[in-house]
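Box 3.1 A note on notation
Throughout this textbook, protein chains are presented in two layers. The first layer is the amino acid sequence; the second is a token string describing backbone geometry. Keep the layers aligned when reading.
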Amino acid sequence: MTGPRCASRFALALAAALLATPALLAGPSLAQDYPTRAIRIIVPFGAGGPADVAARVLGNAMQETLKQSFVIENRPGAGAVIGTQEAAKSPPDGYTLLMMSNTQTANESLVPQRKYELMRDLVPIAPINVADLVIVVHPSVAAKTLKEFIALAKSQPGKLNYASSGQGTPYHMAGELFKTLAGIDLVHVPYRNSGEARNGVIGGQVQMMIDAVTTMAPNVSQGQVRALATTGERRSSVLPDVPTAEEAGLPGYEATIWLGLMAPTGTPKPIIDKLNTAVNAAIKRPEIVKLWTDQGAAPMSMTPEEFDKFLRSDIVKWAEVVKRFADKP
């Protein structure tokens, strides 16, 4: 075909191609230019806990890589729902990130009143690290071993308390799983954050807590609490004299706390990929590996796609657990 109609179609095709060219180039260009200002990491947990500490370590390392400062903002409350919601509703420009954990995957089934959905309103960037937990009691508790504590709890149903940093947190879920497998009745006492929960058991206001090895180990060493068992498959290198729950007489009990980063849905893929590369580079730095190893944590490295599958699987896992005991006090 020749003539005006053909020329018109050619002009339209050429115009479309020219308009498409910037879009094709925008991805790489966007990744190259980003970031041009400070990046905010919302930590929906209290100061001093594993997520807060990890966010600051990670922010310092990524600051060197990306040449921009990282601002850590603690937004605790409602079992991490408040801070997570703030991150989910933030502009998807790569300048607001969320530090998250298995609290958020448990909340998907445990807290139906949320104003966000994790996998709809946020996108995975990368996991960061994973750590075992430790079961501790106040020194005044008349139990030296895990078996003795279980026997004590069975003799006093509903009389002993355990602390957590809030509904749906790994410490709460670990406590409920412990109750179920041990066949005991403990009263859940949720605090606003892990620091307050930790102080509760150290001060004797509650008898027991299941906390991250990374933060509770110093309190164990100082004799402020008594460690009964750790919750991993193997003994913790930080508390080598403390038996695993399996060794201590509770077979099948295993619980961990892992941390990761997400961003609001709509954040450009080139930015997500650039952040993933920066996170994976940071957690492989020898000084960070040593720091976390000394604290009882291990780095986790995944692509955004792998982390997406991990999160979806974890949501399903906790939904099954919540179905069994989430309605218990």
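The longest strand covers residues 122-137. Strands lie at 39-43, 70-74, 96-101, 122-137, 161-164, 187-190, 208-212, 226-230, 256-264, 297-299.
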